[in-house]
Write a structure and sequence with these properties.
Elements lengths: L1 E6 L8 H15 L4 E6 L11 H5 L6 E5 L3 E3 L4 H7 L6 E5 L14 H7 L5 E9 L13 H9 L4 E3 L5 E3 L13 E3 L21
Parallel strand pairs: 1-2, 1-3, 5-7, 8-9
Antiparallel strand pairs: 3-6, 4-9, 5-6
Length: about 200
């Protein structure tokens, strides 16, 4: 059975249980494919921060759909799983919002390319994979998504449609819609942007 996995390491933002509860509710409403919801709180290794995601890649047999805790799911996402199932040899993710791998920015200098692990990267807020994968952190690189891209691009990465997964900063705030999934990378976070204390999952 498909596992839907999230990581609540070190009590995310001091409100990890709240974020997990919100995500579980959104997944229940918007993913009709049979699944098991799994919360990981400790990976029993010395990786920290974003690099914990690399350990998640090693933890599960079978299908995994991963979500960062700070995403908002507001429409059915069965189509993302169905797309990923067309080629389960690949890890599926979205092209990055800030530093696209498909259309690399021309203003990235050589020093920052080292930080990125290349000319651009995927975004790891929403990922699908099937079977355990071992990826080491990339020397000098910024985070997990840079290591994943450097290790797997292009033949072992599939890309989710850009219109399905959008950014609060780059799309919603510019009036370009929120997609089926909206990613709150950086600041602000979902509990900080709504009058009632949260961005509602139905996007009211």
């Amino acid at each position: 059975m498909l596992k839907v996995v999230c990581l609540n390491w070190n009590d995310y933002l001091g409100r990890g249980e709240e974020y997990v509860s919100k995500l579980r509710s959104m997944v229940w409403r918007h993913l009709k494919i049979p699944h098991e919801f799994v919360v990981v709180t400790d990976t029993n290794d010395d990786r920290v921060g974003w690099f914990k995601k690399l350990t998640l890649l090693e933890m599960f047999d079978g299908e995994v759909m991963f979500f960062d805790l700070d995403v908002i799911i507001s429409a059915n996402i069965d189509h993302l799983v169905e797309l990923a199932r067309t080629d389960q040899s690949r890890l599926w993710a979205r092209d990055d919002f800030s530093y696209s791998r498909v259309n690399p920015r021309k203003d990235v200098d050589d020093a920052f390319r080292v930080t990125l692990g290349g000319p651009g990267t995927i975004n790891s807020s929403v990922m699908y994979w099937n079977g355990r994968r071992h990826i080491e952190p990339l020397a000098g690189a910024h985070g997990d998504q840079n290591a994943i891209t450097a290790a797997l691009w292009p033949d072992q990465i599939g890309l989710f449609p850009n219109d399905s997964i959008k950014s609060w900063k780059y799309h919603v705030q510019r009036g370009e819609g929120h997609g089926d999934i909206c990613v709150f990378h950086g600041e602000p976070k979902p509990h900080q942007v709504a009058r009632d204390g949260w961005v509602d999952a139905n996007w009211r």
